[in-house]
Amino acid sequence: MRKYLIYLTIPAMVACGSKEPKQSTIAGKFSNATDNTILIVSPNDVDTVNLADDGSFSYKLSLAEPAQIKVKYGRMSNILFLQPGDSSYIELDLNNANQVSFTGSNSDINTNIKSRTNNLYNIMRGWRDLFALDVKDFEAKIDSIKNALMAQSDSLKAKSNELAEMEGNRIRYFLLNIRTQYPQYSAYLQGKSFNPDSADYSFLDKVDMNNGEHLSYDDYASLLETYAELRLQKMKDFATLDSMPAEQRLPVLFNMVDSIFTNSKVRDYIKKHFLVDEIQFGEFWKLTNVCNKYVEACSTPLYKKEVQNIMNEKMKIAPGKDAPTFSYKDINGKEYSLADFKGNLVYIDFWATWCGPCRGELPHLDKLEKEYKGKKIVFVKMSLDDDMNAWRKMVTEKKLGGVQLHADGAWSSDAAKNYQIKGIPTFVLIDANGKIVSPSAPRPSSEEIRPLLDQELAKI
């Protein structure tokens, strides 16, 4: 089971209540945008909003209580504190995304939130020094950081009690997530193997793991994921799950989740977490029945919508579908398109120079390429590096073979979006007719790749 621990997240929270809702407005401008959409994430919904040609947008929503709303562009996220009837404006130049300006309602508060968010990011930028501390010093450091940040959030009570509570919770969950990372990264920095059974996660017992309302905090949701996996690993039949195909494993896993959690929204979320992970990184085309049953049983409309949307989108690259076209230049400036390789199998490696697992596959990929030299198969290495110079340097110094291409726009490139790349390395296999064989093909280091290539070559 996969666990992608990314804790630099920005949560949102809304207070409960039954007041008459009022219309609020979020508007702004994203200069130099390469994508034409943003996401507006409110406590109970996620909407896609189109940007105008000049990067401007305007969005209206109904609020009954104060809320923190996330405005997301790609992997960037900014929080806006919005009260019923407010109109807030956000402007940033994506060529210098650290410079964000807020005007309109609560502009001073939103600027303050952005500053605090940057402070949270800075904590994790020094992760090596932090996780290198012994347990006692680490806990003291976290307590010191917490006290300083909580004092800042308490000072917001003069402006809004709701805001102070939201920011306090946001800080608390962020730091709790850092504590969950300590055992694993401390072991890594000491060159030791990590054993979760011997790690101390007792502090999680003091956290309410059945608070459906707090799922609007990204870091609370991440805590739930960690807690669920720790609990599941201790259950009697957990060890047998990895040997099952996903379409059999997930229903068993869902029953285990029901035995751990009591809140229906929390149950829905944890099940969605495991299901979406399999859809994004596994053989999603085999999970139609599991998805349908999840949607039927799920009592949280937002999660139903998310699973349906993700599955519908992934089916666009299911085996047998036309492979998305692409056209990019190699290191010498020669342009290649997918059509150039028609009549051959195409094995695409989506990678980047900074990616450790990607680099780990390179020797295996080189060996595989040499074994299949002269056969009807093309090995395409599609770099998602932002830094083209780093890509050029590695290709040259390592004398990397195959067709070396750089996807313009990196993670925002058409190739990354059309092939729905969520993590790297990702390998894609395309047949001689331009149809997808596997959108998540085995890695070069796996035992499964050669039988698959031989099977497909026999069809040509």
Automatic annotation (TrEMBL):
SUPFAM superfamilies: Thioredoxin-like. It is found in: Cell envelope. The keyword Nucleotide-binding does not apply. Keywords: Cytochrome c-type biogenesis, Disulfide bond, Redox-active center. It holds the Pfam family Redoxin. GO terms for biological process: cytochrome complex assembly. The keyword Secreted does not apply. Residues 317-458 form the Thioredoxin domain. One of its GO terms (cellular component) is cell envelope. This is AhpC/TSA family protein.
